[in-house]
């Protein structure tokens, strides 16, 4: 494998990780703001101790990978709303099955489906998907293209280790 090809892989890995972190942090901010606006209290909506909601990182990348070739923003938005709604519903079912706990509810929200998804939240997810695709990924691509590829890779690998350690601590605490 040539040096430029290795660098491309290292930079691609770093891009995925740092964009994932940006979406996860943005999702955490969105969640905290929603709870504050609805209930007038600060509540850490994240599952982790870190200020991250990884489900937003997975959702953002999933949408991006499925839709990145679509240049029409309106179509990207509509497809993001539909896919995000299906993803959120599936995640609600999965988390309930695995952890025997509801991590969110849309009880009382207009046009909710079994209190697991809501039209309002789905529309917000469409907006967030557009922000990720148009405002997060392009500048991160540019940033990661500068500097040493190995440095970007090591920083990204370190971030993953921190997240995985936090996840392990949370899961171990759930078993106690």
Written as H for each helix and E for each strand, in order along the chain, the element string is HHHEEHH
Number of strands: 2
**Average residue pLDDT:** 93
Structural class: mainly alpha
Strand content: under 5%
Proportion in helices = over 70%
Main beta sheet strand tally, sense and closure: 2 strands, antiparallel
Overall tally of domains: 1
Question: Would you kindly provide a written description of the structure presented here, covering whatever features stand out?
Answer:
- There is one protein chain.
- The protein has 176 residues and is mostly helical.
- It has one domain.
- Helix 3 crosses helix 4.
- The longest helix has 37 residues.
Descriptive key words:
mainly alpha; 74% helix; 5 helices; two-stranded antiparallel ribbon; 176 residues
Summed up, what is this model?
The chain is an all-alpha fold. The chain has helices at 3-39, 54-67, 73-99, 119-144, 149-175, and strands at residues 112-113, 117-118.
List the helices and strands and how they pair.
Layout: H1 3-39, H2 54-67, H3 73-99, E1 112-113, E2 117-118, H4 119-144, H5 149-175
Antiparallel strand pairs: 1-2
Helix pairs in contact: 1-2, 1-4, 1-5, 2-3, 2-4, 3-4
């Amino acid at each position: 494998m040539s040096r430029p090809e290795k660098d491309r892989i290292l930079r691609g890995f770093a891009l995925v990780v740092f964009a994932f972190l940006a979406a996860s942090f943005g999702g955490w901010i969105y969640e905290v703001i929603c709870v504050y606006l609805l209930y007038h209290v600060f509540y850490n909506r994240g599952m982790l101790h870190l200020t991250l909601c990884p489900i937003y990182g997975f959702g953002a990348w999933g949408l991006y990978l499925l839709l990145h070739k679509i240049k029409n923003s309106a179509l990207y938005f509509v497809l993001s709303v539909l896919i995000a709604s299906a993803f959120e519903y599936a995640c609600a079912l999965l988390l309930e099955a695995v952890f025997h706990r509801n991590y969110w509810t849309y009880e009382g929200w207009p046009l909710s489906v079994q209190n697991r998804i809501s039209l309002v939240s789905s529309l917000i997810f469409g907006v967030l998907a557009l922000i990720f695709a148009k405002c997060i990924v392009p500048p991160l691509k540019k940033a990661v293209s500068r500097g040493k590829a190995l440095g970007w890779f090591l920083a990204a690998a370190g971030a993953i280790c921190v997240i995985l350690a936090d996840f392990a601590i949370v899961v171990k605490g759930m078993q106690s």
